[in-house]
Design a protein that fits this description.
Layout: H1 11-17, H2 25-39, H3 43-64, H4 67-80, H5 87-92, H6 103-113, H7 126-133, H8 142-157, H9 162-171, H10 175-198, H11 200-212, H12 214-281, H13 284-298, H14 305-374, H15 396-399, H16 414-425, H17 429-447, H18 456-480, H19 487-511, H20 515-533, H21 540-548, H22 550-570, E1 578-579, H23 582-588, E2 605-606, H24 612-631, H25 640-666, H26 670-697, H27 702-707, H28 715-737, H29 756-772, H30 778-801, H31 810-828, H32 836-843, H33 847-857, H34 867-873, H35 879-889, H36 909-924
Antiparallel strand pairs: 1-2
Amino acid sequence: MTIVNKFDISRQYKWAYSFCPSAAVSIVVRLVIAEVFERRFDSVAKKMLCSFAIAIVVAAANAEQCPLYTYLLNKLHYRFNVKPKTPFEEQTNPPNRFRCPNPKFLLLLRCNALPKIGEETMQPSKGRRKVGSTPAGAGIDSAEKLDELLISSAICNGEDLGPFVRKTFGTGKPETLLHHLKFFARSKESEIEEVCKAHYQDFIHAVDDLKSLLSDVESLKSALSDSNSKLQSVAAPLLSSLDSLVEAQTVSKNVDLAIGAVTHCVRVMELVSRANQHLQSGNFYMALKCVDTIESDFMEKTPSSTLKRMLENRIPAIRSYVERKVNKEFGDWLVEIRVVSRNLGQLAIGEASAARQREEELRIKQRQAEEQSRLSSRDCVYALNEEEDDEFGSGPESSDAGSSGGGLLGFDLTPLYRAYHIHQTLSLEDSFKKYYFDNRDLQLTSDFQVSTMTPFLESHQTFFAQIAGFFIVEDRVLRTGGGLISKQQVESLWDTAVTKMCTVLEDQFSRMQTANHLLLIKDYVSLLGVSLRRYGYAVDSLLEVLSKHRDKYHELLLSDCRKQITEALSADKFEQMLMKKEYEYSMNVLSFQLQTSDIVPAFPYIAPFSTTVPDCCRIVRSFIEDSVSFMSHGGQLDFYDVVKKYLDRLLSDVLDEALLKLINSSVHGVSQAMQVAANMAVFERACDFFFRHAAQLSGVPLRMAERGRRHFPLTRSQNAAEDTLSGMLKKKIDGFMTLIENVSWISDDIPQGGNEYMNEVLIYLETLVSTAQQILPAKVLKRVLRDVLAHISEQIVGTLCGDLVKRLSMAAIKGLDVDIQLLESFTENLTPLLTDKEAREMKKAFIEIRQMINLFLSSHPENFVNPVIRERSYNALDYRKVATVSEKFRDPSDSIFGTFGTRGSRQNPKNKSLDALIKRLKDVS
């Protein structure tokens, strides 16, 4: 540390430093010193000049820190015996002590003696120009010339010579710099001398003025000294009091600082205590808020270093502790929410099932109302439908009722939201979001694992309920979590879940061979879709998978129904069903609309059908309901045509074939055949019910279903049953018709009560009708009777045309006429069963034998060949049969051997007409 550094630049030196801020100040000081000693100035002038020089050197030394200035300053102190001032002395001594008494002297020095370098208005002197133009010598190269020019220019302009001095001494050639400095000093000596000569008189006058003021100054000095003594004597107590006051103020200030520090520490400790209480009570958010307040508002201002170190150590530990606790709670919540999700999914799907059941009940009531309206029933019943409150909620609106979960549902999102809130407070929001999404994604992946230990039929409800509950929870978190999970993330999870569920369904459906199992899974998946559609999830892909397996399901369903129908038919005993109670009647008759009257019969009631009919009806109805159940709630609104198509297949391909097989293999008696025919008639009414029931379940108006009604799908089995019954009856009739061999065809006696065979046939027919009326419907009985009567007619005609009858007498024809009259009488006696028109139609069954008898009983048989008469009266006769019977009916006397006895007698006109008929028929043939 140099001596110059001990002096501060005070205000008295600032004006001096403004004259020469460069290294040239040393030259100026030397010139002033030389002038003082050569001119023999008086002491006052010497001191003023020396003070001025010292001021310049001190200012420059403190500004530039150059050892040269220190050397000059010490030299001045030694030459003028001036003691260097300490900073304290500079503060106590006013700057006016060294100020020039004459302002003109300052102006002189400022303008002439020490001109400011760099001002544009000042021109360099002649000496300066000489210095700038003096050559350095002929032996210096261009680089040295450039350095000399730069040094000369810097000296003339008053620039900083420090770099040049360092460079000169560094190169070891200071002669050039010293030469230029000496030359510059000599050039300034004449200027300083001229200035001093020009202002010498003014300076002397100024000194004289100062001397004249010396006495006044001395008196003023003594007065000031007295005043100072009095002031000090008077102010001594005051100064003592002031010292006490200052000391008291210092103590008070220290006390205030101490109180403030204690108060600050107390507030910090209160916050610390509050944070501890919150930590103990588990209120981590408030604890973190207290910690944040301590850290942001109090830690930096805490005066106690011990307390501050404690806070710096414990605050991160508290945050780590809170983070561990909430992460543990969140982990426990992740474990618990899986169980809760499964229960939640089961509850949601159960609620959807209950809602579907209510819709079905409402739809049934609507169908009943439509049926009443269709039947023009005026006794309408009106009821108020009161729907129960949905405890589960109907979707997102109910789920938004509480942000922390549903109380009735038993799941709570408070641990999740608290963990999320705490991580937000810890500025770990993004990491927690990622942590939450990754864990939920892993849980969903785990939920996709299908157990191989248990059949999928047993575990599918748990499987789908777990997924449903998962996305119900995620929907709640999305709506109330404050950005914990985004909609895109939920949709990504849902897309993954849908893809996995579709894969599982495809795999499981491909393995299933039971329609009921497939239907159970389909119903549960559709309920899953209904439940999650409430929350805005797209379930179309799942429904498409279900629709894709529609054909397979119905094939399996048809296969199951085929087995059930086969078992039901094989168990049939071909006996009428006995119903002892009304509920049996309702279950077996009314439920399938098989009744022919609205009057409830008396019990016990014997139905016209066997147990096969209600059993098969139940199977078909179950098929319809299963088909509708599979087709409904699957995204397809109009599915009646699909249900109708598969119903036609069931009736035509399954039931009809099973009945045909039964008829062809298991019917061995008339009673069995009659029962099967009766069953077929009941099945015809049941088929109408089947299509109406399918239309009702499909939501199609009955009028549209009736408009598109097809033919009876069991026509083949119905015809087979009636044909079988007719065939067996014909066999029975054929047994009685064998008695026709006992008829005397050439007898002249006419049987009064008819032939024996006809009496037997009539007895059997009457017994048959009385029995069949209890079982067979009228239209079936009429068809069977007509077929049997036609068979009787054919048998009689066949007998007449056959080899059994060689000749026919008129008595035999009249006997046949009596037989046919008995048949006609039998037909007419069926009046309760037949109307007059139907009786006339029934007689057409044996019209062939009737027309043949009428032909041979007529007077002119040859009218048969008359087209008009034949079309009107004999249109059922075949001319070949007529020719055959006519040959047998010809009178024997008309033969060749009979002409000998009657040659001369007149021929019978009827025989003549018959001969003409025979001749004409032979010509035709």
